[in-house]
User: Fold Tetraspanin-3-like from Camelina sativa.
Amino acid sequence: MRTSNHLIGLVNFLTFLLSIPILGGGIWLSSRANSTDCLRFLQWPLIVIGISIMVVSLAGFAGACYRNKFLMWLYLVVMLLIIAALIGFIIFAYAVTDKGSGRTVLNRGYLDYYIQDYSGWLKDRVSDDGYWGKISSCLRDSRACSKIGRNFNGVPETADMFFLRRLSPVESGCCKPPTDCGFSYVNETGWDTRGGMIGPNPDCMLWSNDQSVLCYQCSSCKAGVLGSLKKSWRKVSVINIVVLIMLVIFYVIAYAAYRNVKRMDNDEPAGEARMTKSHPSHFHL
Assistant:
């Protein structure tokens, strides 16, 4: 029994360690929500799951140390629910960020983003006028577009240099006009709209060289936020899947050890025969 308790304690300690990358992923997404992605609700389930794993692991560890079977049982029940919640969360994250990606542009290093390439609940959420007002305000406050400018030895970068840059989805969608507008490059956030062959894209009419406006009301900006969110969530989801696999393995080990503890508690005392013959043999003289 002592060996099984030690095993359960070790598994709980390792589970506690696994909660750290989950919690760290949630905190990283939270920092992104305050600076780049500007969506402040999707990271909270991950933070709650990470904290829950941490607390439950400590309870299971205490149960193993003090041989408290109730705490060990509670660990198994709650951890099973947490694993189910993590599975559901991973599926949800992949489902809402499944469709949509940037389009390659001829002779450009960056991608262009179009809202029609995305679909589903997350697109509807971001496209909602009331919610977009909060996101666009966050983007302005983060000064994402003001950071896009570059100088080389005091000389601003040329159009050819800018066209080869790999811009982030937000920088491409919100800080410059769509390429199909045909505007002429002046600087990273300034474009000459005179004489440009304005295409059918409605964003071409929404673009403004006013640094407080730019393309923050463009559909391309909404698509850029969705593209940025997809990249962030895919990075975190890889960590979550690895952690989930390890959690399942540790859970199976802890469950087997707990069953062994129960069996040893319910069996006969050590030294007593576990099996008796139904028909004992007779000695013949």
Summary: Residues 268-278 have pLDDT under 50 and may be disordered. The longest helix spans residues 219-266. The beta strands are 103-104, 111-112, 151-152, 155-156, 184-187, 190-192.
